[in-house]
């Protein structure tokens, strides 16, 4: 049976610990389907929309998301583990939990901290909220 894994990445070095964990797990579970997800925080100011087209804004999100996923994707590809990459826009924790639920994924893997400058003492704030919101197991890679 295929293990379907969501790896949430924000491009930070701590988030790449999740990739390292998945690679170690792959040694024991050969049949894996890996999805990499980066969530872009929406630029919600009405002023932004006055000066930047919807298409340009979507392209910005896509470019920033792909950049955040690049190192993780490359590590997986170098190890021979294919993955699907996704960029979403929204509230990070809600979007991650919803993505896993919507696609029927088995588990979520995240780093303990990311780019957020205001986090909890033990876990990053996004990671803590995903643990609370997700309907599947969440593995936190330290």
CATH superfamily membership: HUPs
**Spans with pLDDT under 50 lasting ≥5 residues?**
116-122
Number of domains: 1
Using the coordinates above, name the CATH class.
Answer: Alpha Beta
Q: What percentage of the residues does DSSP assign to strands (E)?
A: 15-25%
Detailed description of the structure:
The protein is an alpha/beta fold and 142 residues long. The chain contains 5 helices and 5 strands; from the N terminus they run E-H-E-H-H-E-H-E-H-E. It has a single domain, classed as Rossmann fold (3-Layer(aba) Sandwich), CATH 3.40.50.620. The chain is 48% helix and 22% strand. It has a 5-stranded parallel sheet, with helices on both faces. Helix 1 packs across helix 3 and helix 4 packs parallel to helix 5. About 5% of the residues have low confidence.
Features:
5-stranded parallel beta sheet, Rossmann fold, alpha/beta, 22% strand
In short:
This protein is α/β, with parallel strands linked by helices.
Write the layout of secondary structure elements.
Blueprint: E1 3-8, H1 13-28, E2 32-40, H2 46-51, H3 54-78, E3 83-89, H4 92-103, E4 107-111, H5 125-133, E5 138-141
């Amino acid at each position: 049976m295929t293990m379907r894994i969501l790896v949430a990445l924000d491009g930070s070095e701590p988030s790449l610990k999740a990739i390292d964990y998945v690679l170690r797990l792959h040694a024991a579970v050969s049949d894996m389907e890996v999805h990499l997800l980066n969530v872009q925080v929406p630029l919600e100011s009405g002023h932004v929309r006055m000066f930047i087209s919807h298409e340009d804004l979507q392209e910005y999100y896509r470019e920033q998301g792909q950049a955040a996923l690049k190192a993780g994707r490359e590590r997986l590809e170098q190890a021979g583990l294919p993955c699907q990459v996704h960029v979403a826009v929204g509230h990070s924790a809600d979007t991650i939990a919803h993505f896993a639920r919507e696609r029927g994924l088995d588990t979520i893997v995240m780093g303990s901290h990311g780019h957020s400058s205001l986090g909890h003492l033990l876990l990053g704030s996004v990671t803590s909220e995903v643990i609370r919101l997700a309907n599947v197991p969440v593995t936190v890679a330290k």
